[in-house]
Write a structure and sequence with these properties.
The complex is a heterodimer. By secondary structure, chain A is an alpha+beta fold. Chain A folds into two domains: 36 residues; 118 residues, Methylamine/Aralkylamine dehydrogenase light chain (Electron Transport Ethylamine Dehydrogenase, Sandwich), CATH 2.60.30. Chain A has four helices and six strands. In chain A, the strands form two sheets. In chain A, strands 2, 3, 4 and 6 form a four-stranded antiparallel β-sheet that branches. In chain A, strands 1-5 form a two-stranded antiparallel sheet. The radius of gyration of chain A is 29 Å and the shape is rod-shaped. By secondary structure, chain B is mainly α. Chain B folds into two domains: 30 residues, no CATH class; 134 residues, Cytochrome Bc1 Complex, Chain D, domain 2. In chain B, 53% of the residues lie in helices and 1% in strands. Chain B is globular and about 45 Å long. At the A-B interface, β2, β3, β4 and β6 of A face α1, β1 and α2 of B.
C-alpha cells in the first residue's frame, strides 16, 4: 500500500510522543481530560441552555411586576382569557355584575422581583357577557385538555349560576417553598 | 360581588398555614411541598381550603377523614379516578392524601384514630381505579357502610342528594 503524507506525519507524531511521554503519563492526562471535559461546555447552544435553566421560563425572563393590564405581568404566566384588570376588576376581584367562580386552575409563576415561585389561582368571573379587552394567552405549567384540572382553555365557571365567561383573575395563593 | 371577590382573595392569602409578612403590605402564605401538591392537583376544583362548589364538587373540609372508618371507605378515596390516575408519584400521593384526610378533612367532632396511608398501600390501591363503576351509586354504598359503623357528619350524605337534584 502506498504511504501518503498524512501517514508519514502521523508516524512522526506518534514516534515523537512515544519518545517523550511515558505510557502512565499519557494515560493520566487522557483520564484527566475525560473527567474534566463535561465541566466545560464548548458549544454556545449548550451554554445558553444552561443559563436558561437557572433563570426560569421564557415568560418569567420577560415578565414585569408593575403593569397588571399587560399580558407579561408576572402573575399571568399561565392565564388564558381576558384580563379582569382591563374590565373594571383587578387581579383578585371581579368587575361589577360578574360572579367569581369557586373553582379555578392553580399554577405557579416566578416573581422577577425575588425569583421565587408563587402559586396563582386562575379564577374566572362569570355571569355576564365576555369582556373582550386585553386578551392574553400564556401557558406556563398548563396541561393539555385531557388533564382538565390544569388546562387553561377550560371555562372555569363550574359552580356559578351560568357558564357565561366574562374575564380571568390571577389570585395570589401563596409562596411555594 | 366585589365583596365576595375580596373574601375569596382574603381566603386565598390566609388559608393553609402561617402568614409571614413578606412585604409590609402583603402577607403571603408559605406553602409546604405537600400543600403545593394538593393545591396544584386538587385545590383548584376542591377549593384552597377544601370547600368549593357544593353539588358540583365534593367538599373535603371536615369530611374526608370519615372515609377512613371502614376499609372500603379507605380504599374508595384512593381508587377515585382523579386521585389514582393523578400525575403525582406514589410517595407524593400518599403525602397529599394524608394531608387531605388528617388536616383538611379531619371531622370537627373527631373520629376513630386511623393509620396514615403508606406509600405501598397507595401504590397498590391506585392500580385499581374505579373507572368502570358508577361513582355516585358506589359512593352512596360506601357512605352507607360508614354510617353503619361510625357516626359520620350529616354533610357526607348531602353530596349525592345535591348531585341527584341537579340532574
Amino acid at each position: 500500500m502506498k504511504r501518503t503524507g498524512v501517514d508519514n506525519w502521523g508516524e512522526r507524531l506518534t514516534r515523537r510522543l512515544a519518545a517523550q511521554l511515558s505510557r502512565r503519563s499519557a494515560l493520566a492526562r487522557l483520564g484527566a481530560l475525560l473527567v474534566a471535559a463535561p465541566a466545560f461546555p464548548l458549544l454556545p447552544v449548550q451554554r445558553a441552555r444552561a443559563a436558561d435553566a437557572s433563570t426560569g421560563t421564557d415568560f418569567s425572563r420577560a415578565a414585569q411586576t408593575t403593569d397588571d393590564q399587560a399580558c407579561n405581568y408576572w402573575r399571568y404566566c399561565g392565564i388564558d382569557g381576558n384580563l379582569c384588570s382591563c374590565c373594571g376588576g383587578s387581579t383578585h376581584s371581579c368587575p361589577p355584575g360578574s360572579q367569581p367562580s369557586p373553582t379555578s386552575w392553580i399554577g405557579s409563576c416566578i416573581n422577577p422581583a425575588d425569583q421565587r415561585s408563587y402559586l396563582i389561582a386562575y379564577r374566572d368571573c362569570c355571569g355576564t357577557s365576555v369582556c373582550n379587552k386585553c386578551g392574553c394567552l400564556n401557558t406556563d405549567h398548563a396541561m393539555p385538555i385531557y388533564r382538565p384540572q390544569a388546562n387553561n382553555h377550560v371555562i372555569w365557571c363550574i359552580g356559578t349560576n351560568t357558564f357565561e365567561y366574562h374575564c380571568s383573575m390571577a389570585v395570589l395563593v401563596g409562596l411555594a417553598e | 360581588m366585589i365583596l365576595r371577590s375580596c373574601v375569596l382573595a382574603l381566603v386565598a392569602t390566609s388559608a393553609l398555614g402561617a402568614t409571614p409578612q413578606v412585604s409590609p403590605t402583603r402577607p403571603v402564605t408559605r406553602l409546604s411541598a405537600t400543600q403545593v401538591a394538593y393545591l396544584t392537583h386538587c385545590g383548584g376544583c376542591h377549593g384552597i381550603e377544601g370547600i368549593s362548589a357544593p353539588g358540583a364538587v365534593p367538599t373535603l373540609r371536615g369530611l374526608t377523614g370519615s372515609f377512613l372508618c371502614t376499609q372500603q371507605g379507605r380504599e374508595f378515596i384512593i381508587r377515585l379516578p382523579d386521585v389514582g390516575l393523578s400525575m403525582l408519584s406514589d410517595r407524593e400521593l400518599a403525602e397529599v392524601m394524608n394531608f387531605v384526610v388528617f388536616d383538611i378533612g379531619a371531622p370537627a367532632a373527631g373520629g376513630r384514630p386511623a393509620k396514615p396511608y403508606t406509600v405501598a398501600e397507595v401504590a397498590r390501591l391506585r392500580r385499581q381505579p374505579l373507572t368502570n363503576t358508577g361513582l355516585t351509586a358506589y359512593r352512596n354504598q360506601v357512605v352507607a357502610g360508614l354510617a353503619v359503623k361510625c357516626r359520620v357528619p350529616a354533610a357526607l350524605h348531602v353530596y349525592a342528594a345535591q348531585v341527584a337534584s341537579s340532574r
